[in-house]
Here is the input.
Amino acid sequence: MHHAKPKHEFEPKIIAFVCTWCTYAGADLAGTSRMQYPANVRLVKFPCTGRIDPVFILKAFQQGADGVLVSGCHPGDCHYMAGNFHARRRFAAFRKLLEFIGVDLQRLQFSWVSAAEAGKWVEVVTELTERVRAMGPMREFKDLALEEQWSGSLTTPELQEAYEAI
Amino acid sequence: MTTEIIYSAVGEAIRTEAERVLADGTVAAVVGYTMARRKGSAQPVVLTKPEEANQLIFSAACVNNLAVYLTKAKKELPREGRIGIVVKSCDLKALVGLLGESQLKRDSLYIIGVPCVGVLGSTLQPSVELNAETVADKCRECDDRMPQGADFVPTVALPASPALEKKYAVEIARLEAMTPAERWSYWQEQFSKCIKCYACRQVCPFCFCEQCLCDRNKPQMVEGTPRPAGNLAWHLVRAMHLAGRCAGCAECERVCPMDIPLNLLNRKMSRELKELFHSEAGFEVREKGPLAEYNEQDDQSFIK
Ligand code: SF4
Ligand code: SF4
Here is the structure.
C-alpha cells in the first residue's frame, strides 16, 4: 500500500552529510526496511563526521540547500575512535559563528544516528524537512551565489525581470 | 607624556640587551623595530651584528606583530642559531601559540618582552600622542600588559591601566542584541567591502599553511574573486581556521585596507570557545588548542 503523498507548494532541498559507518548504514536500513521518509534529503557520504569541514555546509547553502543535516555515530561508537568528538567541538564553534553573522540555526541540524536506528533517521529527516518547509526557501546564500554570477548592477527593469525569473 | 618616558626606557633596555646577546653569541639575529623614514614611524628590522643594536627602538608606533617573521617571512633570518625577538604581550601570545603548534622551538628563541602601555590604532600619523583616542582598540581591552615567560623584560613600572571603553565587547553586545536578519545585513555590508587582497592572511602569524584552502581550485571551496559569495566564504573560513588559535594581536584588522572589523569575529570566537571549552590564548603553551582536542563530556545539547 502506498500512502497518498500530500502535495506541497515548496519542497525544500535538504543536504545530509553523513558518516558511512553509522548514519549511512542507518539510512540504508530505513530503506531496506521500507520505511517512508521525505525524498527531499540528499545524502553525501563521508568516512567520518570528523571529515566534514564546515566549508561543506557553506557550499551546500550556496548551491541551493534550504537545510543541512550533519549526522554520524554516537559518541563512543566512532569507527575511528574520536572523529565524532572532534566534529562535535568544531560544529559547536561553527554554529556560534553562523549565528553571529546572522544565519538562522533552525536550518542546520546535527544528530547521532547509529546503523540500527532507522527509526531515528526517519524521525530526524522528517522533522528537519517539515521545519524547513515551514520556514520557506533559504534565500541568503543563494542570492549571494547568484549575484556572484552577474556582473554589473541590476538597475534596468529588463535585467531585474530576468533575474527574478531565475 | 609618561608613555614616552616609559617607552624610551624600554627602548634603551632593549638596545643594551640586544647588544649583549648579539655580542656574546646567545643569538644569531634579533628581530625588532627601528626608525622608519617618516618622523615617528617604526618598521621591523633584522639585526645580526652587536654594533647595529643601537638602531633598535620602541615606541607607540611599533604596531607590528613580529612573530610572523619567524614562520612565513623568515627569508632574512640566519638559518642557524637562536633568534632574539622583541614582542609585546599580544605578540608573545602568538609566539606561544606557534610553540604549541610545533612551528617554533622555545630553545631556538630568545624572547625580549616589552612592558606595554598600548600602541597606536593607526600609524597614519605616527607621532601623535598615545591617549584614549589614539590607542588601538585591542589595547583597550588588554589585561596582560606585562609579558610573562620572556627571557628578558626591561624593569619599568607601568602605571595602572586606565579604564577605557571596551570597543569590541560593546560592539559584540550590540550585534548580539540584533535580529539575525539585521546581523546578516551588517556583515554583508562589511564583507562586501573585501577586495580579497589577502593582506589579513599574509600578516597573520597563524596563517602559515603552504597552500591555503582558499587558493585551491580542485575542488574550489572558496571562490577567489572578490564577489559576494566568495567573500562571505572567505571570512567564515578565516574565522573558523583561526578560532581557538588567534592570539588577538589584531594585525589582520590593522592591515585590512577596507576597514573590515576582522578582529570582531576573532574576539567573538575566542569568547565563545572560552565559554564552551575553557581555553584561550595566553602565556602558557597549550599542547592542543580547543578545536584540536576534545573531552568526552563536551556539551552536545545542540545534537539530536
Ligand atoms: S587572526 Fe588577526 S588577531 Fe588573530 S593572530 Fe591572526 S592577525 Fe592576529
Ligand atoms: S585584508 Fe581586508 S580586504 Fe584584504 S582580504 Fe583581508 S578582509 Fe579582505
